[in-house]
Amino acid sequence: MSEAQTVTDESRAASDLTAFQQNILSILAEEPMYGLAIKRELEAYYGSEVNHGRLYPNLDDLVELGLVEKSELDKRTNQYELTDAGHDVVLGQVEWVLDRFVTDDERADEVRALLE
């Protein structure tokens, strides 16, 4: 696996993934995308170029882990979509972060404001 740690437990958590892989899952939580669209989203987030040699092996790892489904859009383009397991990983990561961030009513209000 390129950047993935070996996952032996059936319940995969975000902690089993690199931050780069977690970011890919977060991007795919919005909608299915083809590789170059994912690359552009990552580049906008990181503010620098994302190498194909980094992106596609990580997408393949996420497919292998059952967190992303890969399908063919045309002969040259693959589409990637979050699976139910991938959705659960993203949701689990959001829950983990919120459990640590929301420590009082003021912070809870900050999160509510983000969601509006």
Task: Kindly describe this structure.
Helix content is 55%, strand content 10%. It has 116 residues and is mostly helical. It has a 3-stranded antiparallel sheet with strand order 1-3-2. Strand 2 (68-72) and strand 3 form a beta hairpin. It starts with 18 loop residues before the first helix and ends with a helix. Pfam families: PadR. Residues 24-88 form the Transcription regulator PadR N-terminal domain. This is PadR family transcriptional regulator. InterPro entries: Metal_resp_DNA-bind_regulator (IPR052509), Tscrpt_reg_PadR_N (IPR005149), WH-like_DNA-bd_sf (IPR036388), WH_DNA-bd_sf (IPR036390).
Strand order of the largest sheet: 1-3-2
- According to DSSP, the number of beta strands is 3
The N- and C-terminal alpha carbons lie at a distance of 39 Å
Largest sheet: 3 strands, antiparallel
Structural Rg: 15 Å
Estimate percent helicity.
55-70%
Domain Transcription regulator PadR N-terminal: 24-88
Pfam families: PadR
Protein name: PadR family transcriptional regulator
InterPro entries: Metal_resp_DNA-bind_regulator, Tscrpt_reg_PadR_N, WH-like_DNA-bd_sf, WH_DNA-bd_sf
